[in-house]
Amino acid sequence: EEFQNIEETNIPNEVENQIEDKENLKRSWMDYENFKKHENNLIDYIKKLTVNDLKEIYKVGKNTKTLKGLDERNISDVLTRLKLNIPLTNDNLENIESIYYKVINELHKRELKVEKKADTNSLKDNFLENGLNYKSYLENKNKLNEFILKLSLNDFKKMHLLGKQENIFDEMEERQILTVITWLKWNTPLKKLNVDKIINIYVKFMENFYKKEEVEKGTLACNLDKEEKSIKDSFGDILAKGLENGFVEMADLKRVDYDNDKDAYDVYEAIEILESRGVRIKY
What we know:
The protein is elongated. Helix 3 (51-63) crosses helix 5. Helices cover 57% and strands 2% of the residues. It is an all-alpha fold. The chain has a two-stranded parallel ribbon with strand order 1-2. The chain has helices at residues 32-37, 42-46, 51-63, 69-83, 90-112, 134-139, 144-147, 153-165, 171-185, 195-229, 235-245, 250-254, 267-276, and strands spanning 247-249, 280-282.
């Protein structure tokens, strides 16, 4: 496991107006500076998030179009477990780490109002450290044996999270990168490992991740346009169909415009209402 010392845990219930970090004067999860302070131990920081924090992260991620379908399912699973008082697993915490990492950096990027140039290699280049910056990778491509040894623990953790998210690594490669992460946590020099294998993993990540980014950017405008034009269903209509059929599709629930719906506050309340009426949710 990547995080060997993480115990299964529940995220605590929300305490009104409580601030977990006394140095933080803003809403904790939205404070980018506070996030950066805890970036090296992000799992421990995530354990302090409240249920409402997670709901807000989900809503912000959805509104900014940062989260994808798998992210939505992962955070939905976490909220369901918390609702049922089921302890979170390490996988749950790692999924939330990935989701939170993407959302907080997207918010920070928007706050800074960074203007993107037409030839920008990746939207993520604005917050990835130099080791995972495509320009730096190209500049050091002929001397990767030296360059790879300068990568930080955060570089490899981000590489693992993003690579897992994009299904870049196979099972063997994922084990190898987790070994690297473990060694760096114990301050063991990477040169004692098989550097060639690390280089191969790094090159595979950089080439596949950024190639995928270019393809996604080419279709982004078209997809956003389709989403804007999609017809929003009302929860009342879905509930009526569910009572008639005995089930509803999760995809239908996600199309509801909850900001303007009078019958349900969000998708989680919609699920509660449906289940209380005996309607099954088909995922």
